[in-house]
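Exercise 3.2. Students should predict the tertiary structure of the chain below and write it as structure tokens, then compare their answer with the key that follows.

Predict this chain's 3D structure.
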Amino acid sequence: MNGTLVLDPLIPLTLLYGVAGLALLALILAVWRRLPGWWLRGLAGLALLAAIANPSIQQEDREPLSDIVMMVVDESASQRIGDRPDQNAAAIANIESEIARQPNTELRTVTLGDGEGDLGTTLMTSLSEALAEEPQARIAGIILVTDGRLHDIERAPRLPAPVHTLLTGQPDDWDRRLVVENAPAFAILGEEVNLTLRIEDQGAAPDATSVPLSISIDGDAPITVPVPIGEDVQLPITLPHGGMNVLQFTIPDAEGELTNRNNAAVVQINGVRDRLRVLLVSGEPHPGERTWRNLLKSDSSVDLVHFTILRPPEKQDGVPVNELSLIAFPTRELFLEKINDFDLIIFDRYRRRGILPSAYLDNIRSYVEQGGAVLISSGPEYGSAESIYRSPLGQILPGAPTARVFEEGFVPQITDLGARHPVTEGLDALSPNPDGEGPGWGRWFRLVDVLVPQDAMTVMSGLDDRPLLTLNRVGEGRVALIASDHSWLWDRGYEGGGPQLELLRRLAHWMMKEPELEEEALWVEPTGQTMRIIRRTLELETGEVTITHPDGTETILQLEEVSPGRFEAIWDAPEIGLYRLNDGEETAVIALGPAAPREFEQTIADAALLTPLVDSTRGGIAAISAGDIDIRTVREGRPAAGRGWIGITPREAFRTAEININPLLPAWAFLLLASLLIIGAWLREGRR
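Answer key:
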């Protein structure tokens, strides 16, 4: 119970002030006239004013409230390395036991985990939100259990009580980190690009001058090179193929380091071709020749070299071949000296007529085996005695002619294998009439009958299911055969036409080994922390995919077929970081966020960021590794930390349960007192 004197005037305050002014004037007049009872008159006026002011005693029934100690426990990713989880548990138990010994004191514990994305440790944000839910007048102390590596110090709230930091970690902690300082998003194939890497040692690291760095591209066998520690290293890289190239850099785990989560980095560089260099050799003029030329010239990224052999095979007039050419045909330069400058060689209705000696054609075969690409667009000549198949190129071509040529209409069909192959997968959906019967495109009217070797792939068929488009891999290179010269009918729109441009684009990109058109591939399309895992295969089923998490744990997923040859699964990753996928045949690497998240940029415990905050409240910083601490009570404004102890400030907060207001004296008592004083003044002045 607590009493306080308060005024509860019977009239408005402005009127009360007016009455007080009149009473003061009357007192001054009495003094000026030297009335002997002036002081009695003054006391009477004061009694009347008191009666009007109605002084009262306000009594409050107060219920004491407990003090609150706020403890924020950092359980972010960096707090889960080494023995820090055990230190967190020990610190929590220590604080709980100490607070339990304090009278009328409660402990509020707030746990901070990993947030979405790569925001790092948002310790101050969590503290602000926790303080907003509690009355500030009851906060007696704030304790932060953390490694000091926070990323939102600028959001520190106003602190109503001493702040203390219990720091995890050990004095001899150290860590090694791989940092990619600079990496381009795009690079031109065949040209070197420089990546800047750096190996950093933090904390009490052992003496070392260099470490082996492993470099792997698209999950292939890594190469290892030594790199110095603490220096920027310029690493020249030449991309092996177009499309997305995933480069993985790894340094080995060192004994005693805190974590290996920052020992790897993934860089994704999109390889682009400066120009696609194509050599088109037309054996004779025909309606489809211009279509080939127009298609290739319409792409500004294609450098086309086109030669047409104008002399018809039946013409025998004795004129030398070199005199029939509009320009000299530089066969030696093209097929011996500069053949490796071309990405793709197309023979369009070419027949042997002595212009390209067998040695040159054999050189083209070697060019394919070493990684080149050859496309044959055949006509009737392919089944004749002058067929290009009857040359050294025949050893690598994916179709042997039977000498039969069919001259009747047929609608090209996608084979069962072609429905799963990326060159022809879903091609019928791009036809002019995708909802009609059949593929929905126009007919062709010529087909060269060929026998396909067992290792080749027939992705399109023609008349009576005979091979129309066959593909094969030869050595490091690739070859393709179109067993008809009527693909130009699609370009001309005959019977609605067909997707010739898309077919040839896919065909060229497959021959260029673009990753998005590989028959066997495993890749991931990330959206935030959600993965769409995609496996493309020519097989009818695929195995389980094993996902290795950043911390080394594994998850096994079964993919479901969503279209012929395409299997997918959606999976929500539990955290950001570097994930490795393997289905026994194909591998993939994906980084959700950075490979080494923000939490692992600095892993050595350090309270430097929190020191100004702690000092401003006269709090303290204590290492958990030094042992338990005591909690004492201190007066506000006094130092709140010392050797082996931290302090909290009792707040003595309360809640008012009831308020009673009683007049100091009854109104009649004030009137009686005023009357007696007035009578006294009259009697004293009447004796004069």
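Discussion points: Residues 94 and 628 are 6 Å apart (CA to CA). The first helix runs from residue 13 to 32.
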